[in-house]
Amino acid sequence: MDQEELALKWIEAYNAHDFAQQAALMTEDGEVMIPAMNIVQGPAWDQTGQSSARLVDDRTIEVLRMISSGDAVAIEMLWHGTSKGGPGMAPAGERVELQNCIVLTFRDSLISRYVEYIGWCQGIDLHVVRSRILESGRPTG
């Protein structure tokens, strides 16, 4: 399986909320970075996804474009979900969206690094939501 196929498999697991499958596609020592939210996590990086899933229902990544080069795949995407409300989020039941680019870096046929660059967002205050995402994680940023 090539890197683009692995990236699509990871997105499929993300959309299915299959955290076990996502983890199986990642290295144990990997890292996640979301510069716009000042999030940098190491080995507990899978917690970021689980924490953000608590903020929205039906979260989905729609791939707009994918480019691979060397050991990396860049994915331009539209992310959307239904807000569960609370600080930094649109009222419960409203759609929230982000147009982002994710860069996945691979090592030994697994994702070793996830960097998410946020383009625009609707219905989310990133600075307020950052603390909610990191509540159960181990922030280092």
UniProtKB/TrEMBL annotation:
Which taxonomic lineage does the organism of this UniProt entry have? Bacteria, Bacillati, Actinomycetota, Actinomycetes, Pseudonocardiales
Give any Pfam family that matches. SnoaL_2
Out of the domains of life, which is the source?
Answer: Bacteria
Q: What is this protein called?
A: Nuclear transport factor 2 family protein
- Extract the InterPro entries matched here: NTF2-like_dom_sf, SnoaL-like
Segments forming domain SnoaL-like: 9-114
